[in-house]
Amino acid sequence: MEIWVNPACAKCRSAVSMLDEAGAEYTVRKYLEEPPTTKELKAVLKRLGLEPWEITRTTEPIAKELGLKTWGREPADRDRWIEALVTHPKLIQRPIITADDGTAVVARTPEAVQAVLPR
């Protein structure tokens, strides 16, 4: 299991605490320091079953600079969004947990973290 975190984020710290309390084995990836590649991000999006605009933090200053709210949200726009997320990882919603069973969640709630814990 891997969790993408920003250590300054309270939801990330909460998710890590829940993993620790559950005794889960996981790797922490500080995705601002080690941004995902295009291939990695596409794989995570597939596991999440989401489109890139669904995991984009549109209130970040860089999102406003790029004008993301005006970008299209159709299949033809997908690569443009992915490139923005890879280039500006701060735009990626956090935390994201990729579980060993192939599932993944945007772990912003306790329920989402619970969903990927081993039973």
TrEMBL record:
Entry-linked InterPro entries: Arsenate_reductase, Arsenate_reductase-like, Thioredoxin-like_sf
Chain coiled-coil ranges: none
Sample GO molecular function, one term: arsenate reductase (glutaredoxin) activity
Keywords (A to Z) from UniProt: Oxidoreductase
CDD domains: ArsC_ArsC
Keyword Oxidoreductase included in the entry's annotation: yes
Pfam families from the UniProt entry: ArsC
Organism domain of life: Bacteria
Family: Belongs to the ArsC family.
PANTHER family: ARSENATE REDUCTASE
Name of the featured protein: Arsenate reductase
Organism per entry: Amycolatopsis coloradensis
